[in-house]
Amino acid sequence: MAEEEVTDTEQAAQPEQLSIVATTTDGIHVLTVAGEIDHHTGDTLSQALDLTGMPRPRVVVDMRQVAFMDSTGINVLIAAHRALTEADGWLRLASPRGAVLRTLRLVGVDTVIDCHETLDQALTG
Asked: Do residues 39 and 64 lie in contact, with contact meaning Cβ atoms separated by under 8 Å?
């Protein structure tokens, strides 16, 4: 099987994509996020977190596959936390790792939004 060489430098320089898989477990919306959360992908996450039209929205963001997050991601999570709380719901983060976890701790997001080591803990937390 031959390898394909990337010759388009624009394509090679594109930022990582973000994928979000939405499921529901016991009435809790679970967003499994993979990739990078930055100014290129923040709107995608923001749209996925917009559940304020639902009564008492409960959301867990599974972050175990998030490799990078900048201030855009922090702002999206804080805005979602506020909106969901105002809608009498909540937001929890599950399984942040490495640099993402350090970022959450550095800016104090882990003191505002419940962060859990595992998805199971976040679902039952």
From this structure: no
